[in-house]
Each structure stands twice: as structure tokens, then as C-alpha cells.
Prior knowledge:
Number of helices: 8
Number of strands: 2
CATH superfamily of one domain: Winged helix-like DNA-binding domain superfamily/Winged helix DNA-binding domain
Strand order of the largest sheet: 1-2
Order of helices and strands: HHHHHHEEHH
Distance between the termini: 26 Å
Strand content: 5-15%
Shape: elongated
Structural class: mainly alpha
Largest sheet: 2 strands, antiparallel
Oligomer: single chain
Amino acid sequence: xxxxxxxxxxxxxxxxxxxxxxxxxxxxxxxxxxxxxxxxxxxxxxxxxxxxxxxxxxxxxxxxxxxxxxxxxxxxxxxxxxxxxxxxxxxxxxxxxxxxxxxxxxxxxxxxxxxxxxxxxxxxxxxxxxxxxxxxxxxxxxxxxxxxxxxxxxxxxx
Length: 158
């Protein structure tokens, strides 16, 4: 059961590629492929760039400075400033002086910015919550262990 590629018999009689075609690995690959399309699709529907959507998602966690947004997005601070300017113009974020360092600025998501992100993602979150609630505690434990293992496997290539 701890063998991530299937049974010993399947491994012995097949190529490595065939051994990686288990139902769970096939479903996981499909999930990863679909998840790569979620951000671009939501951004397009919301009339945002992917960077603007990524910035809004970051800001749903807590206010951060423009340099933090730049680091998160992997862009220059000038590019980050332009992204923030566009989000300010749409009313999705506001700039304010940093609470403890008046020389710094922090960016805060507004109610409309939060609604933009959550509104487009809510159908997915609702379906996932229903799926999660349909699992028995024992099944949820197995799924969580599998997903944590998959996360660890992905981190090995990052």
C-alpha cells in the first residue's frame, strides 16, 4: 500500500511510464493540468491580468507592501507599482501608510477586490466543500495523507 507506483507485479511487467498510469496518478495529473487553467480563466473572466489576480489573492491573506507584491509575483518593483495602480483604479485595493513605519506604504484589498476574487472562485469552493463533507473521517484522513505526499513530491522538483 505504501508503493506509490502500484503493485510489484505491475512494475515488473511494464515500463516506468506504464507503472505511472495508476487511476490515482492519472486523476492527480488531470487535477494538476486543470488547476493550471484556473488562474488564467478567472483573470480573463474578471477582466484582470494574471498578475493582478495573483496580487489580489495574496492580499486576501493580509496587507503587504508593493515590494512584497513584486517578490511574490517575480516582477520588478516598478512593474508591481503598475499592477497596484491598475487595481487602485478599479477600486480593488487602496494604498495606505504602513501602521508602524510611516515611510512605507502597504496595499490593502477592498471589499470589491475581495468580492472579485471570491465571487469567481465560489462555485469551485462550494463544490470542493461538498465533496470534502461527503468523506468519512477515515476517508478524509487517507485523502489528506495522499495529498500531503503529493505536495511533498511536487516540492522535490521546485
